[in-house]
């Protein structure tokens, strides 16, 4: 009896119906595959969409508020258009989904990653260092700026950090010129830490009329001191030549 009902049901199915069912199955399968493939990208876009709000609370397009660009293996997100609360929320969400927490200690000494021999140990006390997110204060030709990035390997014992300077360099917007990393910022929690030494040398920070640091890295300090020494030696040679020529003139007279 069941066999007869099945034959009767199949007799009503035409080849056209079979093609429709097959096409629907293929479309459904293809859509599921696309959703699985693009799920991480959709999650990333939804993450940034949370912060794509105007001050009044109305939503706008993310591309009009947050600018993103890729620099090699680094994704740069420009949050200049966000207020302080939105930026803090953004940083909290980023660190919550990453393996690196946000640094909340004290820093006095900074080293470049390429300068140290072993990036896994502190160059001062030889103990372990750990990678953290932090607000890195860097100087530009306009004004100091802050970059939130996992570019620091902080010592677990002493106030020392090893900085991935190349990561900072990739994160700087094209309209700015990096003139050195000068410290760590902690938002409104407490005062920022300005580096006292850089690669083992004492730092000298020059401030402008508004008590802001335009920035002068140790490399620039060394180059300036070297150029000053060169100028002094040239002046001495010039004075010596003048004295020698005067002596010759006196002998002739």
TrEMBL record:
Keywords, in A-Z order: Membrane, Transmembrane, Transmembrane helix
UniProt biased composition (Basic residues): 223-253
Membrane spanning residue stretches: 21-45
Domain of life: Bacteria
Region of interest: Disordered: 219-253
UniProt keyword Transmembrane present: yes
Protein's name according to its UniProt entry: Uncharacterized protein
Organism (species): Spartinivicinus marinus
């Amino acid at each position: 009896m069941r066999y007869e009902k099945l034959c009767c049901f199949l007799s009503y199915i035409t080849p056209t119906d079979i093609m429709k069912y097959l096409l629907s199955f293929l479309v459904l399968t293809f859509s599921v595959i696309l959703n699985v493939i693009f799920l991480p990208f959709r999650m990333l876009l939804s993450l940034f969409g949370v912060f794509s709000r105007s001050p009044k609370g109305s939503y706008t397009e993310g591309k009009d508020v947050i600018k993103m660009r890729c620099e090699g293996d680094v994704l740069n997100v420009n949050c200049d258009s966000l207020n302080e609360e939105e930026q803090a929320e953004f940083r909290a969400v980023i660190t919550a989904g990453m393996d690196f927490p946000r640094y909340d200690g004290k820093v006095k000494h900074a080293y470049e990653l390429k300068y140290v021999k072993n990036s896994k140990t502190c160059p001062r006390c030889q103990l372990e260092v750990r990678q953290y997110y932090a607000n890195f204060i860097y100087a530009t030709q306009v004004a100091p700026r802050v970059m939130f990035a996992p570019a620091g390997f902080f010592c677990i014992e002493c106030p020392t950090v090893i900085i991935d300077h190349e990561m900072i360099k990739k994160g700087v917007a094209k309209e700015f010129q990096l003139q050195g990393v000068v410290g760590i910022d902690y938002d409104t929690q407490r005062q920022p830490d300005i580096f006292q030494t850089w690669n083992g040398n004492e730092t000298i920070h020059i401030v402008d009329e508004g008590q802001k640091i335009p920035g002068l890295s140790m490399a620039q300090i060394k180059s300036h001191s070297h150029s000053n020494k060169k100028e002094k030696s040239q002046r001495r040679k010039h004075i010596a030549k003048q004295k020698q020529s005067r002596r010759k003139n006196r002998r002739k007279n």
